[in-house]
Design goal:
30% of the residues lie in helices and 26% in strands. β19 and β20 form a beta hairpin. The radius of gyration is 30 Å and the shape is elongated. It starts with 26 loop residues before the first helix and ends in a 16-residue tail after the last strand.
Length: 512
């Protein structure tokens, strides 16, 4: 299926018959479908037990109640008490939702009602469907949820009889002005696609158990006749209030006009090294060994944005707020004050609990709701833990960086390399996605460890090709002149080719 094409997005019409779309009750799913479902059609929500089918179907019915519609929940598996408990846990009331328990629990063990024992399956199935038809005819609901088809499949006992009964349901619903959601827990063979062919649309929900951390849930629209939708998998979570779905980010849908002016780092010498600074709508990758100063440099960009009156957001995968504030204080950066007045937002990210889709939605919210103009992701090593498959990490990061670039946001990415002095290695190569690559290295001279910085790539303009020493002090980050008398600085073990003792960057003793 091709990517989302929004048709008549103002009023949600499908553009074919002028019919208004029916909201699914989920803002995220409505977004994926470009406005919602076509009315008076039959749809299938399928997924293993525990994936959230009951919850999202209740959201569909409660949206109908909110709009003043008559809604019906036909249940062959869940009892009314169980549904009421689900609703209570989400803070919902089922007032206005008609619930039809096909086999009341108090009579389910009555020998007179054990039709499977006393009657052929055809009679039991016929009586079941007739009860459903009578109830629907009496209530005339606009929205119906049928939970679940697994019981109907068991009553039918054969694929042919089961397909006939589902077709009978479809033809019955087609003659009425109602939108129907069928639930299926996939208890049959995975190759049974009869429901897919019969239904107007199919939505698949699944739950993934990772080797470590919380389970991941995702949703995919398998089929939707006559509706262009956003294909692929979309992460979602179940929280109080229902399913929160995070539509897959497509950068091309979010372009906006902006000025590509330079943004200062707050360090004059570093801006000179960058050829004037970093442009809005670009991204920079800070790479180097652990502790070399990448996070401190990223913080200077964020706080320089705050000083300009911009809003900044710092996503920390590796360090907590307390650790980061202590680091900032050690180099004279007023991080705590910026956070207190709301000019900079710090968010601690737990990669074991947060899915990539939820993280991307968080970034979007920071940009579109809070107006963030500088986004720092520290570090990509932590983000990699949230997305163990490197191929998908690169695809996710490509889309996220493209989105931020089209919104005019300056993005600072931090990546820790393996090793300290000498040969170092990166966990993955994202340099081709980066507009600028800034390398920070340790090097040893005369028995002391120093730090060097160099801009090795900048797509958007000229920059210095020199290597400079830098130091972290209680008064901030200081850069020295180009290290012209050294050879092999980036190897970690340089050779001094000058006549005198190597110079030291002006300033006080290292804070680290």
């Amino acid at each position: 299926m091709q990517e989302l094409i929004v048709v008549d997005a103002v009023d949600g019409n499908n553009g074919e018959a002028g019919e208004t779309r029916v909201s699914t009750g989920s803002e995220g799913l409505d977004d994926i479908l470009g406005g919602g479902l076509d009315p008076s059609r039959m749809y299938l929500y399928e997924g293993r037990p525990g994936t959230g089918k009951t919850t999202i179907s209740l959201q569909f019915l409660l949206e109908g109640v909110r709009r003043g519609e008559r809604v019906l929940y036909v249940t062959l598996s869940e009892t009314q008490r169980e549904l009421a408990l689900v609703a209570k846990r989400h803070g919902w009331s089922l007032d206005g939702v008609d619930i039809f328990e096909l086999v009341p629990p108090e009579t389910s063990l009555d020998p007179d009602r054990e039709l499977t024992i006393l009657h052929p399956a055809e009679i039991e199935l016929s009586e079941t469907t007739n009860l459903i038809f009578e109830k629907i005819a009496a209530l005339d609901p606009a929205r119906i949820v049928f939970d679940s088809l697994s019981e109907l499949r068991l009553l039918a006992q054969s694929p042919l009889r089961y397909r006939r009964q589902v077709l009978a349901l479809k033809h019955f619903f087609a003659a009425r002005d109602c939108t129907v959601i069928l639930l299926d827990d996939l208890s049959s063979s995975d190759t049974d696609l009869q429901l897919h062919s019969i239904s107007h649309g199919v939505v698949h929900l699944e739950q993934l158990a990772l080797d470590y951390g919380a389970e991941r849930r995702r949703i995919r629209v398998v089929k939707m006749r006559g509706i262009s939708f956003r294909g692929g998998y979309h992460d979602f979570i179940i929280r109080t209030g229902g399913l929160e779905i995070f539509p897959r980010l497509i950068a091309a849908e979010h372009h906006s006009e902006f000025s590509g002016a330079f943004t200062s780092s707050g360090i004059t010498e570093f801006d000179e090294l960058l050829g004037g600074g970093l442009e809005r709508g670009t991204n920079a990758l800070l790479i180097g060994a652990a502790g070399v100063g990448k996070s401190s440099l990223a913080l200077t960009f964020a706080l320089a944005a705050v000083e300009r009156g911009d809003h900044a957001v710092f996503f920390g995968f590796d360090e907590g707020r307390g650790t980061l504030e202590a680091r900032a204080r050690s180099i004279g950066l007023p991080l705590d004050k910026a956070i207190e007045r709301g000019a900079l937002r710090f968010q601690q990210i737990d990669p074991a609990e947060l899915s990539p889709g939820e993280f991307a939605a968080n970034v979007r919210e920071s940009v579109e709701r809070d107006g963030a103009r500088v986004v720092v992701i520290d570090s990509l090593n932590g983000y990699l833990n949230a997305m163990p498959d490197e191929r998908f990490l690169i695809l996710q990061m490509h889309e996220l960086l493209s989105y931020l670039g089209q919104r005019g946001v300056l993005t600072i990415l931090v990546m820790a390399q393996h090793g300290l002095v000498g040969p170092v290695d990166s966990p993955l190569d994202l340099s081709y996605l980066s507009d600028a690559v800034i390398m920070l290295r340790y090097f040893e001279v005369s028995g002391s460890v120093r730090r060097a910085i160099s801009v090795v790539k900048k797509r958007s303009g000229a920059h210095e090709n020199t290597i400079r020493e830098f130091r972290l002090s209680p008064r901030g980050i200081a850069l020295g002149p180009p290290l012209t008398n050294f050879a092999g600085v980036l190897t970690g073990t340089p050779v001094y080719i000058g006549d005198q003792e190597p110079p030291i960057v002006p300033g006080v003793i290292d804070a680290t």
